[in-house]
Each structure stands twice: as structure tokens, then as C-alpha cells.
Amino acid sequence: METMTLPARGISREDLLAKLSALKAGDSDWQGGRVFSLVYNAGPDVAAIAREAYSTFIAENGLSPFAFPSLLKMETEVVAMTAGLLGGDAETAGSMTSGGSESIFMAMKAARDWAREHKPAIVAPEVVLPLSAHPAFNKAAHYLGLKTIVTPLKDDLTADADAMSAAIGDNTVMIVGSACSYPHGMIDPIAGLAAIARERELWLHVDACVGGFILPFLERLGHPIPSFDFRLAGVSSLSADIHKYGYVPKGASVVLYKNLALRKYQFFAYADWPGGVYGTPSLCGSRPGGAIAASWTVMHYLGEEGYLRLAKEISEATARLLAGVREIPGLYILGQPLGSIFAIGSDRLNIYALGERMKSYNWFIDSQHRPPSLHMTIMPAHNQIVEPFLADLNRAASEVAALTSDDISGEAAMYGMVGSLPDRGLAKDFALEYLNDLYRFRSPGP
Ligand SMILES: *Cc1c(COP(=O)(O)O)cnc(C)c1O
Questions:
Q1: Helix, strand and coil in the chain, % to nearest 5
Q2: Ligand 1 centroid to 245 CA: how many Å?
Q3: Whole-angstrom Cα distance, residue 53 to residue 158?
């Protein structure tokens, strides 16, 4: 690898801050509502208090609850508030983690170790999950030595409880449902999965990473949200990301368990190290105090009322966008999304070319496949952009309708190619090669 040297002398604060601003100039404009994933923006006042809280605890380390009892207190309160929101009771227990992937990793690790104790006959444990489950499950399974059995979705893009039930075998330890799923915003039939989990004595994890801080408020606003949380007795664990609809900067999620006995399988302790008895709740050793403090602060700042107000804005923006997209010839909405996420498909247009065209109009929309679609996670700021967005989408759709396949190039063509490769191993290799190359240092040149 070509390397880079540190600057011989430090650069001034002014110069560096100017450089940071310049670096940012090429990024997607999430403040203006032009991004439909990745950043959950609740407006400048929430961002400001989150920043202040984060920087107040920017140096403190959540690794030691003894050195920083403040962080222990805030973390336990954040977890308790999240449990209160998600149907928990006096038994519910949990931890903060760095994000949805770590929350899912911890729940799978706990389920694996629970099964080692309660189902000792199983040597090659399996997890049954729907196709729409987040890749964090496949990733954690890869790390933890668990085998995943992926089941197809029903036509309405929710998990097929019958197919999952049929895929459960002697080695199954865990099943998974999402509320809601990231690709299409569908709420899986969690009550049905909970019944299966109870009957077959399996661990059910509910992935409410993206839904956990929005669905409860939509429910309170009268939306028909089916039960998905600890109000269902068969739910063993649940993940909810504060750094999504909790509106806290990245590095904040909660993983909850039905009770302390289940949470214990998550923890790690090593008693023989010369550095002392070492114990941690989750994957990380050192943990950023800022994420804990920002979570605690934003949750108190917004309160029930603030989250409800934001959910109402989101629900209005979503309804207006859904109605507008449905009016554009050639476009449709995948399934019947109940929350704040949906996917746009087309039976006539190349959807990836449509995404590219929208990018040229400065809208950043992620492409998805199986089936091809564009991803829309709706935030409060999107209420301000409904009309210009729909106008551009309409224009882009008629422009793409006029394209021939020879005109379709760039990312659109690449996505189409990778999405349709019959050999999924090849598609995976392609992705790994691509990433390995992308994360190479490139010298700026002369
Ligand atoms: C975002 C998300 C995850 C993963 O969370 P990260 O914070 O990105 O690690 C898992 N599941 C669902 C449904 C998500 O939306």
C-alpha cells in the first residue's frame, strides 16, 4: 500500500476546520431533506442539544461504570425508557450498544449461548430468518458460527410464518422477524412468530432497529400497527436503534431481553487477566460516553410529546409521498407499508436508471434488488420537499421511459448486472473485491 506521512508540523485549527468544511461540500445534503436513508434529522434544535450533550461526555469511557457512574446511570435510564416504550415490564433488561449491528450481534450471541445450555444436543445451531431480515444477522451468524436458513417472503413482502415454521429443524435455536423491515418497511407477523417460538421453545428476536422509535408513536397516533414488542409473550429479545428515529448521532442502539436471565448470556467476563477482572456487557471494550449522554439528553429533550410531533410530521410526509408516487405513470409502491419506510418499483422503467437520474437532480436514493426498487426512509424534514421531489421524480420517470437499454450505463447497469447474476457466490465476490478496492488509500497526486 502506498502510505502517507503525518504532517511534519501540526496544522492550525482554522485551517483544519476550513478543510473539514471543504471535504463536506461533496457530501449528500441531508439537512435539506435530499437523502432517504442514513441520517435521521429532527431539526436544528435537536441536533444542537445532541451535539452539546455528546461533547460534554466526549472523553468519558463507558467501559468503566466505576470511574463514570454518570454513564451507568444514563445508560440504565435510556434502556429503561426504551423498554417502557416497547412493552417491557419490571423483568425486561437490556444494554446500550454502538448500533443495530452490534445489538443484533449481541442478541444472537446470547441466543447461541442460551441454546448451549438449554439445548445441549445441538452442535450446529441454526437461525431461521426471512429474506428481508437485515444483513447484520448474516454477518453476526458468520462471526458466531451460526448457520442461517433464509426463507422467502410472502407476496405482500412480509415474512412467511408458515415457510419459517417449515424451515425449523432439530438444530434451530432462533427465529427472527422485523418491525419493520428495512428494504420495504413491512411489519412481519410477529404475533405468529411469537406463537411458534413459544410452542417450539425457540428464541425469537424482533428487529425493531429502525421501527423501535417510530412505530410506537405511529400506533399512538392511531395507525394500525400490529403488535411486535414485549407485549407478545414469545419475544425473547428486541433491538431498537436510538441513532435512527431516536434522533441521536451515530453510535447508539438498545438491545432488550425478556429478563435478566436471558441478558446474562450476552455478557462476557474474564477473571484471570493481570490487568484485573475484566467484564463487558457488549462487543466493545472502550465505549463512547458521548453516545450514551446524547441518547439520554435527546430522549429527555423530546419526551413523548416531541417524538409524537415528529412522528406526525413523518406520517404526513409519508402519506403525501406515497400518494404522489402512486400517481406517476409506471411507478408503484411495493406492498402496503404501514410505517415510515417504503420502496418504489416499476413494471416498465429501469428503476436504477431512475435512481441515477434523480441523483443528477441532487436526490440521493439507495437502489435495492430482488425485486429492483428505490429505498425511501422518511424523516421529518421530508415534509418540506414533497412537491419538488415529486416534480423531479415525475420528470425523471418520463425521461427514463424514453431511454433505450443502450442508454443505461454506470451504476444503473452495474446494479442490474450484479442483481441478476445467477451465481450469488460471484455477486458476493464482486462486492468484496469492490470494497477492498474502494477502501484503498489514493494519494492526491501532483
Ligand atoms: C439499520 C438497521 C440495522 C442495522 O443497524 P446499524 O445501526 O446500521 O448497524 C438492522 N436492522 C434494521 C431493520 C435496520 O434498519
A1: 45, 15, 40
A2: 11
A3: 38
Amino acid at 165: S
- Check residue 416 and give its pLDDT: 66
Q: How many CB atoms lie within 10 A of CB 110?
A: 23
Whose grid coordinates read 461504570? 65
Region class of 376: left (phi > 0), else alpha (psi between -120 and 50), else beta: beta
The predicted structure's pLDDT at residue 37: 93
How far is residue 364's CA from residue 88's CA, in Å, rounded to a whole number? 37
Across 123-142, b (16+ Cβ under 10 Å) vs e yields eebbbbbbebbbebbbebbe
- CA–CA separation, 317 and 386 (whole Å): 7
**Exposed (0-12), middle (13-18) or buried (19+): which is 70, by Cβ within 10 Å?**
middle
Select from 102, 143, 180, 210 the residue to mutate for testing ligand 1; criterion: most ligand atoms less than 8 Å from CB: 210
Q: What is the pLDDT of residue 101?
A: 98
Bridge partners for 128 per DSSP? 149, 175
Nearest CA to ligand 1 atom 5: 100
| Segments of 274-379 assigned E as strands | 278-280, 331-333, 341-346, 367-368, 373-377
Could you read off the pLDDT of 40-94 as tens digits, one per residue?
999 999 999 999 999 999 999 999 999 999 999 999 999 999 999 999 999 999 9
Residue listed under C-alpha cell 424482533: 206
Residue 414 pLDDT greater than 80, yes or no: no
Average pLDDT (356-374) is 95
Of the residues 138, 178, 209, which should be mutated to test ligand 1's pocket, given the most ligand atoms within 8 Å of the CB? Answer: 209
How close is the Cα of 279 to the center of ligand 1, in Å?
A: 26
The whole-angstrom separation of Cα 395 and Cα 323 is 17
CA 35 to chain centre: 15
Measured between alpha carbons, how far is residue 298 from residues 51, 238, 314 in Å?
10, 21, 18
Cell reading at 272: 484471570
- The CA-CA-CA angle for residues 139, 143, 144, to 5°, reads 115
